[in-house]
Sequence to fold (107 residues):
Amino acid sequence: MSDLTADQSAITAFGATHQSIGTEIAGAANMDTATHVAAMTPVFGLIGADYLAMFAAAQVLHCSDVNDLSAKCNHLGQSAFGTVAILGDNDGAAAGSLGAIGNAIGG
Fold:
């Protein structure tokens, strides 16, 4: 790991992209399940009531899973921003220490 570099602007762009993706995914998950089932009720009638009940349950579970994916994308973006902050602080501190050492030895 002697040749490790980290581009703070690239990490920031990565974080912003993932937060944006998380927001878009959340928008897709926020569907109105009750309206979907109500719209299909006339098509399936009483015979399809069991199907519609299972469909509604599956839709609710699907929306929950998609919202979970959205939260994970947002967390990934926030973690990238946190990484940039820590990296910037540590990089600045290391540069200051090296500068002080250089000045002490006549650099």
